[in-house]
Each structure stands twice: as C-alpha cells, then as structure tokens.
Amino acid sequence: MVSECDVPLVVQTRHQQTGRSVVASGVEYSLRKWSCTLLDGRPRASNAAHLPYIKEVEFVLHETFDNRHRVVRRPPFRVEEEGWGEFDLVVIVHFVNCPEPLQFIHDLNFHEGELYEKKHHLVRPRPPP
Question: Per the database record, which ranges form the YEATS domain (predicted)?
C-alpha cells in the first residue's frame, strides 16, 4: 500500500491597473499587470517561496495569450503577464521523487483585491525514505 501526503500550496495573486485599456468585441477593458506565485502553504514554513520538494511548475494561461504554456524550473515559481480578462489558470506541479505531476485550477480574478491568496491541497504519494 502506497501512503500519501497532503501538500498545501498557496497561489498568491497580485494585480494592478496599468492606466491603459484595450477594446475587445466592442467593449473597452482596463489592462492589468498581474502575477501568480506558488508558495509553501504549510503554517510555519520559514521561507514560503523556497519549495525544495518541487522540481518545476507549468502554468497554462488562457488561449488568447502568446506562449500560453510557461514552465518555471526554479523558485520563485511565478508567472507574470499583462491582460484584461479573468480566467482559470491551470497549474501543473512536478515534485521531486514523484513520477507523475499533479495539477489544479486557480481562479485568476480581479475582484478579490490587488493581492490575494488561495490555498490548494494536493495529495501525492509519499516519497520513499
């Protein structure tokens, strides 16, 4: 029997208006510069951005972005972009000592303030001793 472990991760989202706008389908939208950073979600993590148990993180952006599939291979595991719309950001986490990556969806939105954090719990096989 393979034992499992819960891996609490946090996605920290920051965004701010750029002062510029774009017109899409006849509607004007404010452009925002935004970033999403994966952090350690354990309560007493000394350095939340360190994440030594993660090998790489893939961020899959909305289909309207150029180069929508971004791979980050070392901390900070962050994606930064500029845009006007909200979307479901796919986050694929590759762990050290774990053959299969795990993924989750992060709701990237501009309604929860300029800085917000969402906790996500991933369950993965416990690494061998």
Answer: 1-129
Count the neighbouring beta carbons within 10 Å of the beta carbon of residue 79.
Answer: 21
Q: Which amino acid is at 94?
A: H
| Calpha distance 82→69 (Å, rounded) | 15
**Cα 24 from chain centroid (whole Å):** 26
CA 33 – CA 42 distance, rounded (Å): 28
42-88 pLDDT tens trace: 887 777 778 988 999 999 999 999 999 999 999 999 999 999 989 99
Q: Residue 118's beta-bridge partner residues?
A: 11
- In this structure, what DSSP letter does residue 72 have? E
- In whole angstroms, give the CA distance from residue 43 to residue 30: 36
Output the six-digit token pair for 101.
């990556």
Helix, strand, or coil (residue 98): coil
**pTM reported for the whole predicted model:** 0.89
CATH number of 4-125: 2.60.40.1970
